[in-house]
Amino acid sequence: MTQSKIIIREAEKEDFPSIREIALSAMLHRESLSPIRDPSAAAERQRDRYAQLADQGLDSLPTDWAPAAFVAVDETNDSPEIVGYVLLALNATDDFTGEQQAYILDIAVNPNHQNQGIGTKLMQQAHKYARKNGLRYIGLSVAAGNENALRLYRKLGYIEEWKRMATKL
Ligand SMILES: CC(C)(COP(=O)(O)OP(=O)(O)OC[C@H]1O[C@@H](n2cnc3c(N)ncnc32)[C@H](O)[C@@H]1OP(=O)(O)O)[C@@H](O)C(=O)NCCC(=O)NCCS
User: Fold this and answer.
1) What tens digit of pLDDT does each residue of 98-120 get?
2) How far apart are CA 137 and CA 78, in angstroms?
């Protein structure tokens, strides 16, 4: 079997439509949805968000977040294919201590390419970029039932600092 050749690079403006396609096929999976929320509201909101991102790239996000994006490109075949991405902000704050931290806004890998170490590579690139920019912490939020994502984050040393809770009235 051919070994796949995956490279990680900074996203360019033309990459964002592919990012939207991966987001929509990967993010709206069952595990990302809270059991008490409305799946169609989530689908509509996420579709709008990713349409804006596809159209305007990082300009669709507030500049004071200092957002950045990296993509994983499968270069095994003649036509390279974007198979994953990570979006992060450099200018986030930990509410409790007020310390500046980086923040993972979103990460997804094309379902056909999951479980091959690509999510790990993307997260490592986000860490490297945050460290290079002088940051000592990185945070994220994840749906409580998203076991694949939780496994990836725990493997990379993330711990659960807070739990957000909600109930239906
Ligand atoms: C979460 C997500 C990004 C993980 O991406 P991924 O590319 O599958 O992640 P990885 O392959 O790096 O790691 C996942 C597992 O594959 C294993 N793996 C790593 N390299 C591997 C390889 N070459 N072959 C087989 N398995 C491998 C990892 O060890 C890990 O398993 P483990 O935790 O049991 O050790 C992906 O599941 C996804 O896109 N989910 C939907 C979107 C989502 O929920 N995003 C998170 C929002 S908070």
Assistant:
1) 999 999 999 999 999 999 999 99
2) 38
Q: Which pLDDT band, with edges at 50, 70 and 90, does 26 fall under?
A: confident
For residue 117 and ligand 1, the question of a CB distance below 6 A is answered with yes
Query: Nearest to residue 42, comparing CAs of 53, 56, 32?
Result: 32
Q: Is domain 6-155 classified as CATH 3.40.630.30?
A: yes
Ligand 1 atom at minimum distance from 123 CA: 12
The answer, yes or no, to whether any atom of ligand 1 lies below 6 A from the CB of 120, is yes
The three-state secondary structure class of 145 is coil
Are 96 and 131 spatial neighbours (Cβ–Cβ below 8 Å)?
no
Q: Is 116 in the pocket of ligand 1 (CB under 6 A)?
A: yes
For the chain, the structural domain boundaries read 6-155
> How much of the chain is helix, strand and coil, in % rounded to 5?
40, 20, 35
